[in-house]
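Bit of a strange request maybe. I'm writing a small parser for structure token strings and I need a real example to test against, not something I typed by hand. Could someone generate the tokens for this chain?
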Amino acid sequence: MFAKIKSSNFIDALKFQLFAPKGNCVRGVLKDDTGSICRTIEKDIDSDREELTWTGLNDLPYGRYTLELSQGNDEPDSYRVKMNLVKRV
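Reply from user aminoacidic:
Good idea to test on real output. This should exercise your parser:
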């Protein structure tokens, strides 16, 4: 696993710790419970251990979401992480 979520509940931002080699790119896709893509993010890693805060999620409706993170361009599935999240009040 190359990422660890700080909390599976969020209101307007997600915080997670990234453990990836410097210079890699991390891509994130946030999907709602129907599988529709709500948000995407792409971040170049500046250090081997970096904390990322994904802001601007306050306008999403409350409910269940899935965060899919992938590392690198054509990496194998072992470099993919799926996390279940809940947006709360």
